[in-house]
Design goal:
Elements (H helix, E strand, L loop, with lengths): L2 H5 L14 H5 L7 H14 L2 H6 L12 H10 E13 L6 E12 L2 E14 L2 E10 L4 E2 L25
Antiparallel strand pairs: 1-2, 2-3, 3-4, 3-5
Helix pairs in contact: 3-5
Length: about 170
């Protein structure tokens, strides 16, 4: 990758990372809108900033009980291809609630997938937080050839695929 490409923020804004999502992820500024928080959360998955993902969730009984290990695995084991914001409702600087519908495209374990979600966001004490999301299912398209059940697992465990990731 060229120097210019790696400077760009993964969220797709066209801005440099240092001028876009990095200050929000590093805590030097707050996301001004629900969409800005959504973009920073996607970027946090790409950059493996799991604490930011967890810290920007609304925490209440029965809401956002995050499995840290699963989140780390999804972040680390995925090749992130891009974020597409489909629509927003409210979520502006003067709002206290907002919706962001988005698609995050990634490849994990040889399968290319699109995470299509409508996320609900709330501004609590002046800070935007992810509240809940409604997933929309899509068809998964395999990248590359299909792995045979008795072949070595591509994860490198040394086990047969059927006894490892193919379960």
């Amino acid at each position: 990758m060229s120097e210019v490409t790696t400077d760009l923020c993964p969220c797709g804004s066209g801005k440099k990372y240092a001028e876009c999502c990095e200050p929000v992820i590093k805590g030097t500024s707050l996301a001004p809108t629900a969409e800005a928080l959504m973009r920073a959360r996607y970027t946090a998955y790409v950059k493996h900033e799991i604490d930011f993902i967890i810290d920007t969730c609304e925490h209440a009984e029965g809401i956002n009980e995050i499995d840290r290990d699963a989140t780390v695995a999804w972040s680390n084991d995925s090749v992130w291809h891009g974020l597409k914001i489909l629509r927003t409702e409210k979520g502006g600087t003067d709002d206290t609630e907002g919706l962001v519908e988005f698609e995050a495209t990634y490849t994990r374990k040889g399968l290319r997938d699109v995470h299509h979600e409508t996320g609900s966001f709330k501004k609590i004490d002046g800070k935007w937080l992810y509240s809940v999301g409604i997933l929309k299912t899509t068809t998964v398209v395999r990248e590359g050839r299909k792995i045979g059940r008795n072949e070595p697992c591509p994860c490198g465990s040394g086990k047969k695929y059927k006894q490892c990731c193919g379960r």
